Amino acid sequence: MIVAAKGLSSGYTPMGAVIASGEIHRVIQEGSGAFVHGHTYSQNPLSAAIGCAVVDYLLKHDLIRRSAEMGEYFLEALKSLERHSFVGDVRGRGLFLRESSLQRTKKTKEPFDPKLRLNGLIGNRAFEKG
Q: Rounded to the nearest 5°, which phi and psi values hold at 89?
């Protein structure tokens, strides 16, 4: 089961979805038959139209393939940072990438003291370097 939101409408309007496999759907259908999963903005025609437009745009511009291509490029670039002792392993898929941790040493994986605000220092330096 997947619960999704925001990206379904590119954040232009409230929209969420629950996506269930055929097996989950069958169990619900054979049980109560009811699948109550949301009420606040249910059946909003504007949100539905925006969601459809987002899907059309994704398909028209082949953004799924582009995300996979850019993800490979980005993963390779991030993997090069593993040479630094303070960078944990890098992993992800598509453009959902991350390094696992900032650590004092690779051997112990001991984290840095949060008071150092290392993540902010690294982020600022990255922006400085473009």
A: -75, 150
